[in-house]
Amino acid sequence: MGLLFAKLMTVFGDREHKVIIVGLDNAGKTTILYQFLTKEAVHTSPTIGSNVEEIAVQKTRFLMWDIGGQESLRASWNSYYCNTEIVILVVDSTDRERLTLNKEELHRMLAHEDLQNAAVLILANKQDMKNSMSPAEISQYLTLSSITGHSWHIQACCALTGEGLPASLEWMRSRVLAN
Predict the structure, then answer these.
(1) Domain 16-133+144-178 carries which CATH code?
(2) Is 111 annotated for ligand binding?
């Protein structure tokens, strides 16, 4: 009976689903958060700490935590992991030099016990830039095919225009409704 009630609560949207948005500095995390919220590009400055917003997709509510990506802040990411259902890793598709660092951070996160049941969404941001890598290239560099314990998806996007973000929200919604 309890399981049925929990499923009904999920379907009817009475429960918030915790999402963390992480990535290296200048990847576009905060712009994406506010693009999700307002469907407009907003001027942002580097996040010191975090921003949090509730985003509703049909009747599904997400509590999204945008966490600063500067090197000094990455050590505190794990304090946000508890009860996280979806991890969004935002990758700057033009930043080839830091792909190895993105890979290290991703795999370090996924090894954390608090994220053992979390789904992973990789947003390949800045696809509007001429020298951007494709999602397939980023997937290969991040060795996403080696991720077996988590549901994952990679999505091309542009934080400034919002391109690719509605599909991202729909993927997230389908993940939480499937659980």
Answers:
(1) 3.40.50.300
(2) no
